[in-house]
Write a structure and sequence with these properties.
By secondary structure, the protein is an alpha+beta fold. It has helices at residues 2-21, 73-86, 90-93, 110-119, 131-140, 183-196, and strands at 30-31, 43-45, 50-51, 60-66, 96-102, 124-128, 145-147, 158-160, 164-167, 173-177. InterPro entries: SCO1/SenC (IPR003782), Thioredoxin-like_sf (IPR036249), Thioredoxin_domain (IPR013766).
Length: 199
Amino acid sequence: MTNRLLPLILTVSVLALTGCFGGEEQWHAKDISGLMPELEFELVGTGGQTVTPKDSAGNIRLLYFGFTSCPDVCPTTLTDLRKAVNQLPPDYRDDVTTLFVSVDPQRDTPERLGSYASFFGDHVVGLTAAEPELRELTKRYRTTFGYDEPDADGNYNVSHSSAVYVFDRSGKARLLLRPGLTTQQVSEDLAHLASESRS
């Protein structure tokens, strides 16, 4: 009985190892290669200047839509991304740029956005645009945003996606970071992506 089972056990083991190490790359995040368009935008930077992907060409780019008045999701996400980048090997830390795009242009002036983005590190770039341009950009990446009714003081919440889009050095969409990933898992994916595409 044991001799008959041994070949079966060996076969299953080989198949298991093949599934872990062979074939497609294994990512912690969702692989969106070929499913999303490349990185393309024309937005307003914190100094009032026009910013395009060319300004961070050659870097891994993390695209995240949010707003500075966000009470929890945005600061938590940006903090986790900073931790993940800080866990990268030193040679890769300067190779990652986080593009924080505010979908609340009415309140998020370039000055306010600049102060907010700088709190999360030197490699976080604050960007925004007029609402129609923001609608087009979020539609490009199959997401959206919305505004709640203002309260008596004029304050309102903004609904938006919590996903982070990861683009490689050439601007191709590669990964989608969704809630539930640890900073270590994100860091491992970024290190893998940085190492495979470093010139």
